[in-house]
Write a structure and sequence with these properties.
By secondary structure, this protein is an alpha+beta fold. About 25% of the residues lie in helices and about 35% in strands. The chain has a single domain, classed as Gyrase A, domain 2. Strand 6 and strand 7 form a beta hairpin.
């Protein structure tokens, strides 16, 4: 029993430290998966360019935890695009991913209180070494507003409150 307490107390303390300000929007990037990987590793997805069914990895390759800053941009279809600048960990992961999985599809998923929503997928056509992911369209004004509350704009320092 004492041994269990020794492990549970630090775990509880770590989880409480992470319960600061809850994010209201998340953005995650899932890479195309092989359907033979099984339900534990791959989930069905609908690709739109061209329209077809496929699978993406259940675990995101890049998530909002690795986003250092953003830059929203208006899109021609009345939605918004967004540039995501990743931190060092995200930059290295993206470089590795884009080198090893060239030709694969990356599916961005934005998750809000309304639930998850898939944005237009992108094909990995070359290694990405600068840690920047650009989604040209698909975000709503509300999603951009929430992202701006969570992340600084590219070129500014510090997180927004």
């Amino acid at each position: 029993m004492k041994l269990a307490r020794l492990f549970l107390l630090p775990l509880l303390a770590l989880s409480l430290m992470g319960m600061g300000k809850k994010q209201t929007v998340s953005v995650r990037f899932h890479v195309q998966a092989n359907p033979r990987d099984g339900e534990s590793f791959a989930v069905p997805a609908k690709f739109h360019n061209p329209d077809r069914d496929g699978f993406v990895e259940r675990v995101a390759s890049v998530s909002e935890r690795e986003i250092a800053a953003i830059r929203p941009v208006p899109a021609q279809d009345d939605s918004f695009g967004c540039v995501f600048k990743l931190d060092l960990h995200g930059t290295i992961g993206l470089q590795t991913l884009s080198t090893e999985r060239r030709g694969a599809v990356v599916v961005p998923v934005v998750n809000t209180k309304a639930g998850p929503r898939q944005l237009p997928e992108m094909i990995i056509d070359k290694p990405i070494t600068d840690g920047i992911i650009y989604i040209p369209r698909g975000f709503t004004q509300l999603e951009i507003n929430e992202l701006q509350k969570q992340f600084p704009l590219i070129g500014q320092t510090g997180k927004r409150k």
